[in-house]
Structure formats: C-alpha cells, structure tokens
Write a structure and sequence with these properties.
By secondary structure, the chain is α+β, with helices and mostly antiparallel strands. It has 3 helices and 5 strands; from the N terminus they run βααββαββ. A hairpin with a 2-residue loop joins strand 2 and strand 3. The N terminus is likely disordered.
Amino acid sequence: MPEPHAPASWRIGLPHTTAAVPIARALVRTALIDIGSTADTDTAELLTAELVANAVEHAPGHDPIELVIELLPTSCQVEVRDSSPIPPGDLSDPSPDDEPDPWQEHGRGLLLIRTLSSSCGHRPTESGKAVWFTLRAPADH
C-alpha cells in the first residue's frame, strides 16, 4: 500500500465579488494537482464554486473571502471563510424545508454539497464562519 501524501495546503484570499467564483474554480484545480490529490477535480471545482458564490451573495461588506485547500491522508478538504457569522442551511441533516424548489433559480448549492461530498459542515471563526467539504480520494490510489 503506498504511503499517504505528506500534509499540504493552499490558502488564498479572494475578492468579495462574483469574479471570485471562476478564480476559485481554477485555483482549486491547480492546487489539487500541485499538492498531488487524487480527488475528483471536477467535483471539487463545482462544490468550491457553490461555496464561494454563497459567500459572495450572503456575506455582508467587502471583506475578502478566504479559500483553504488541504490535502489529508485519504482525502482533500476545501474550506471557504467569510465575514458573516450566520451559518448556511444545515449541511449535515437537512429538514424538509431545506429541499430546493425545482422551479427556483437558486437553492441547489447546499444539496449539491451534501450529495457529492463525503462530508461537509460549517464552524464559527474569529471573523465570521468557515464552510467546508471533504472529497475522498479513490481507493485505488
């Protein structure tokens, strides 16, 4: 069995604008390749875009958004930090009210994160909150 990767991480500040979304997608792909993760980069890009878009839309002010990408022994974790202390909808055990309306343009991001990640959640930080997801690396790597 191969040795797990050494711990590695990227930490990047992003502008609090919609321009942060495509920047974050490109950065997460580049970071996962750079740190040697075998997690699915397409899924990581999609979920990262959802987290960054939520931070841009819901966090007040103009404080930068922070993107943290960390390689763990059997997975990778992506975290987005913003200045709002208000947690997102429940990422771990949604209520029936959390199900998105299929006729609405918004509201599917947290469902995607819950469905496609191996785990996800949020936690308070000194300056707001962090929302994260984990993607497992394929077992054959």
